[in-house]
Amino acid sequence: MTDYHCHLLPNIDDGPTTIDESIEMAKLLVNAGYDTVYCTPHLIKGLYEADNNTVKTAVSDLQNALNQEKIALQLLCGREYFLDSNFMKFMSDLMPLENTRYLLIEFPPHTYPGMVQDTFSALIRKNLIPMIAHPERSELFHEQQSTAQPKKLSKLKTFFHLPHLNDQSSFTPGKRDNKLLTWLIDHHCAFQQNLPSLLGTYGEQAQATAENFKRLGIYTHSGTDAHSPEGLIKLFGQHEP
Ligand SMILES: [Fe+2]
After folding, report:
1. Is the residue at 170 inside a domain?
2. Which of 53, 67, 69, 97 has its CA 20 to 30 A from that of 152?
3. Which chain residues have CB less than 5 Å from ligand 1, an ion?
4. How many domains in the chain?
5. What CATH number is associated with residue 23?
6. Parent domain of 116
7. How many angstroms does the Cα of residue 168 sit away from the middle of ligand 1?
8. At what angle are helices 19-31 and 229-236 packed, to 10 degrees?
9. Which of the residue ranges 14-28, 134-148, 216-230 would you say has the lowest mean pLDDT?
10. Residues 64-81: pLDDT tens digits?
């Protein structure tokens, strides 16, 4: 099992501050059934600015530490990009999830659909696949029931080879059309669910949206988005000694 979104590296963003904490998180992840984890530290101009080489070195160092501890967890490189006005500055040196074309991107509050569409179109032209980090947390998808047609879901199922996607599912018509969601599905974007969302960790709207996305089979990937051992204990419980 793979965790596609995790702040496992020490001292690089708002994740663990010591390598001991990272190792504790790794043990918890293994105990929960993971064998592979993408290390996806934030890249936010003015806040978390570690460059790609720093991330690669940190992944290699932590992997060596885990190997020494005989913790069977494969670490892969990634980043969590932030879709603000500074994002374009990173366009020339983007780091997708290792060995994939997926670029993990979170939406800041108050992002507007036009910015998402313009930026994602540029990424798609670069042969990348935008992967939206925890879309259920974005207000763009809150309290909005899409009127996207079932055929869109069929296209998604075909593209991502999603046997779990229920062709009979249909979006419930709501107050507003969610044209952005339809556009993202049409453009084969990926949707990464945060597992804590289903527990209500980010509030009722995120939880309701996560349940809706899950029911409709929109999610293509999942992640813990863990930042600490405590976060993983809340999600999975304590690891075995
Ligand atoms: Fe994150």
Report:
1. yes
2. 97
3. 80, 225
4. 1
5. 3.20.20.140
6. 2-236
7. 32
8. 10
9. 134-148
10. 999 999 999 999 999 999
